[in-house]
Write a structure and sequence with these properties.
alpha+beta, UDP-n-acetylglucosamine1-carboxyvinyl-transferase, Chain, four-stranded mixed sheet, 23 strands, about 25% strand, binds uridine-diphosphate-2(N-acetylglucosaminyl) butyric acid, pyruvate
Amino acid sequence: MKKLVIRGGRPLTGEINVNGAKNSIVALMPAAILADSEVVLEGVPDIQDVHSLIDILNDFKVKTSFENNVLKIDPTQMQSIPMPTGKIQSLRASYYFMGATLSKFGEGVIGLPGGCFLGPRPIDQHIKAFRSLGAQVEDEYGVITLTTGSEGLQGTRIYMDVVSVGATINTILAAVKAKGKTVIENAAKEPEIIDLVTLLNKMGAKIRGAGTSVIRIEGVDHLTGTSHTIIPDRIEAGTYLAMAVAIGQEIRINNVIFEHIESFIAKLDEMGARMEISEDSILVHHSDDLKMVSLKTQPYPGFATDLQQPLTPVLTKAIGKGTITDTIYPQRIKHIPELNRMGANIKVDGDIIRIEGPTQLTGAQVKASDLRAGACLFIAGLMAQGETVITGVDNILRGYSNIIEKLQAIGADIQMIDDDQVED
Ligand code: EPU
């Protein structure tokens, strides 16, 4: 078992390059199986979720190669193999193989996803969409079996009862080769959805409206291989921006699309952070006397739930009282007891997180129980006086590539050790 050991309080200076988006690549990889020739994806982050999906693709007899952030996917020999258990359950996004195998083979058997525990994460909207398109869907003890009759999937109008990234993507994947026209209403608008649609359209799909709440899909018979560069990871960018505001002397974050994190930047502005925004990078100057703020997470383009946890340690430095309300995942609060153990003054009051600052964090033994809780804790560790030891590191490695190298390069005292390794 790996641990992160951080000796906090060092001044951090330099540059950090943001990688391709995790939540984009995890949709693009299942989408690539729909092509009848090789798909080349560039700017692919070297994260655990990508390796897990490569293993799953290989189990489906899809050929892959992954070198220097270029991932080649050749689905020409792919077979329709049931995946009720095993690797398929190691990450949540593997549920995109439901829409993708349904589209490619008219059938699929996919075990229900794992991923971060953020409270209940139902997939009723995905199932509703598959059924509307004409699929039969059975759920037996967490294994979803999808089939279609001889007439295949038929385009239809689907209204999403909740705005869901996953359900929107799965519906696009299922409908892209369905007969006729599909209209998705109340669709999610995330940049990752636009990225998926850009790839599919390059492959020959006919999809309009990505990035708005109405997506129109004209089904096509064939999709062909292409190459595509993945958008930068807005959550990784936001995480390092939060860190830079908390403890940076002067840090430049490169490969950022400002528009993708406008609501987050607005919140940092409100706190009094000093930033210079350029075309594709943001320079963060040292800030003292940060102001406390309150925030509510919302579907895109609102404040992202994934950035709520990374911003929380920064708020412990701010002066005054503030609240965080996560309307997407109200139970995304596992970072709070850990921050309190480090000296924060935070209370969970029903669905509201109440913070009072400023407090000085001190090093402690803490656990990253999910990916963004991990992001919160490595920022807290860098801010804290003394030594912080973080367990649950695998959760962090699921979404942050080369994290040790990136943080050491800006002056952080951070190491990854094995459990049995003795510290000096
Ligand atoms: N929901 C339903 N029914 C459904 C689907 C969703 O009620 O059928 C609800 C969820 O319970 C939640 C809300 O709708 O309250 C939004 O969930 P959504 O489906 O949008 O989330 P997701 O697709 O499962 C993706 C990201 C998450 C991110 C959320 C919200 C991926 C692989 N995951 O999850 O990312 O938090 O959107 O933006 O794209 C992360 O990167 O750390 C992460 C958890």
